[in-house]
Amino acid sequence: MRILTVISNYNEGEIIEKTIEDVRKNASIVTDILVIDNCSTDSSIEQLKRLKVDYLKHPVNTGGSAGVIKTAFAYAHYHGYDIYCHMDGDNQHMASELDKIVEPIASNEVDVVTGSRFITKEGFQSSFARRIGIHSFSRLMSWVGRRPYSDITSGFRAYNKKAIDYFALKFKQEIDTIVQLELVMHYAGLKGKDVPVQMRPRETGKSEINFVNAFKFPFYNMISFIGTLIQKPK
Amino acid sequence: MQISLKIIVLLFGISFLLVFVSLVRRKNIKPFYSTLWLLVSLLMISLVVFEKFYKWVATLLGITDASFLVIVSLISFLLIYVLHLSIRISQMSDRMQELISHIGILDHQIRKLKEDESD
Ligand SMILES: Nc1nc2c(ncn2[C@@H]2O[C@H](COP(=O)(O)OP(=O)(O)OP(=O)(O)O)[C@@H](O)[C@H]2O)c(=O)[nH]1
Ligand SMILES: [Mg+2]
User: Fold this and answer.
1) Which residue range is the domain that position B14 belongs to?
2) Strand-pair partners of A157
3) Is B33 contained in some domain?
4) Domain A3-229 falls in which CATH fold?
5) Is A143 exposed, middle or buried (0-12, 13-18, 19+ CB in 10 A)?
6) What is the pLDDT of residues A145-182, one digit of tens each?
7) What ipTM does the predicted assembly reach?
8) pLDDT band for position A234 (50/70/90)?
9) Which of A174, A176, A224, A228 should one mutate to test binding to chain B, selecting the residue with the greatest count of B CBs within 10 A?
10) How far is B33 from chain A (nearest CA, A)?
11) Contact (CB, 8 A) for A128 and A134
């Protein structure tokens, strides 16, 4: 079984080395590593060259982290991987827990696994405002998707071949938000599951969630969610 | 229409037309869209020039206030146009995403091949 671990990077030049080292040293699975750079404007590319890590670079920024996931699906399909694991470049996810998100897929239990920090509630729990947002959307998605979702914006995920093929071959649309991705997967009949993981707090770099975005994000998510609800099944 | 309003609408229509012509000349706008904007500016100018005609159409439809007819038709035109633009933007962003992904994959593949060559 061939597994690809994608590390999503956008201007994480200061921390990307730590993230890569974590995967190289502590990964609890056998996996290829690919960094997907969303056209960073900092020293990221020099870092990636120096670290001699395999990387793919977007020619322009996709305007959000979901664009990286779409590329990862296309790449995983093109190179015939069986499983694609996703990690954020800011070293918040733990390579030592990769087996936890891969196991339910390897055993053919589900198609997609999300690492959730809100099941055992250990480790970094994010800010209060952020938690409210995540919980509300998780609730909403649990209601629509008829299964418990607990950490809906979590980037720490594993997808099987069925999911890879669906996004690489069938779903040729841009995805705006991770919440929308979740809904699309539900409609596509992909079975999902959350497993408990821990996360680290963000050490450096800029989060997608700043003051302006704190207001923009819920709206943006809501709009794309409702739109996807209307679009529904194919 | 009041004379001052006529002058404002006329000036607006003409400057719109001028801006639009210069945009087309400099190839900043596609021919398809330029036709639409040409229609808008001509419509504005015609409001003043063919005021009688619009009044006639309005009475024919049983509308007493001719300006109302004009406003409604302008707004519907713009709504349809904006809807059209939304559709185009959606198509374009979907295609852009596909292209970004594929250029990324090809660029990565080429780099790999070159590395293999130099080894
Ligand atoms: N902001 C941003 N991040 C991107 C983009 N493309 C990829 N990313 C990566 O997406 C990942 C997630 O972004 P974060 O801003 O950390 O989002 P988050 O983890 O939900 O938020 P925090 O808990 O505040 O870190 C990071 O590894 C980024 O490097 C992009 O276009 N913009
Ligand atoms: Mg993060």
Assistant:
1) 1-49
2) A86, A114
3) yes
4) Spore Coat Polysaccharide Biosynthesis Protein SpsA; Chain A (3.90.550)
5) exposed
6) 999 999 999 999 999 999 999 999 999 999 999 999 99
7) 0.90
8) low
9) A174
10) 25
11) no
